[in-house]
Amino acid sequence: MKTSVTIHLYATLARLMPDSAENYPIVRGMPVSDLLDELGVPKNQAKLIFINGVKGNLSSLLEGGERIGVFPPVGGG
């Protein structure tokens, strides 16, 4: 069943944000890893994943209506 989520990609991933990020269509029950594949986000670049403000992971299942934030690895010194 189709539903949608809100997507936020940060830092170096921001260039991959879809135009429909506020209402991105998904299939209910899809894992975050499938969503990242659709968006072209390399899994090794998804260091932190938040779903509705709570830490998630690549295998977290999406039901629709979630806010998803994905952060790349951060370097610095």
Number of helical segments with 4 or more residues: 1
CATH topology: Ubiquitin-like (UB roll)
The number of strands is: 5
CATH architectural arrangement: Roll
- Strand order of the biggest β-sheet: 2-1-5-3-4
Q: What is the mean pLDDT?
A: 96
Unreliable runs: none
Query: So what's the CATH class?
Result: Alpha Beta
Radius of gyration: 12 Å
* C-alpha termini separation: 46 Å
Shape type = globular
Brief sketch in words of this structure:
The chain is globular and about 45 Å long. The protein has 77 residues and is mainly β. The longest helix is centred in the middle third of the chain and has 8 residues.
Keywords:
mainly beta, 77 residues, Ubiquitin-like (UB roll), 10% helix, 5 strands, 31% strand
Task: Draw up the topology in text.
Elements: E1 2-9, E2 24-27, H1 32-39, E3 48-51, E4 54-56, E5 67-71
Parallel strand pairs: 1-5
Antiparallel strand pairs: 1-2, 3-4, 3-5
Structural overview:
The chain is mainly beta and 77 residues long. The protein has a single domain, classed as Ubiquitin-like (UB roll) (Roll). 10% of the residues lie in helices and 31% in strands. The protein contains one helix and five strands. It has one helix at residues 32-39, and strands at residues 2-9, 24-27, 48-51, 54-56, 67-71. Strands 2-1-5-3-4 form a five-stranded mixed β-sheet, with no helix packed on it. The chain starts with a strand and ends in a 6-residue tail after the last strand. The relative contact order is 0.31.
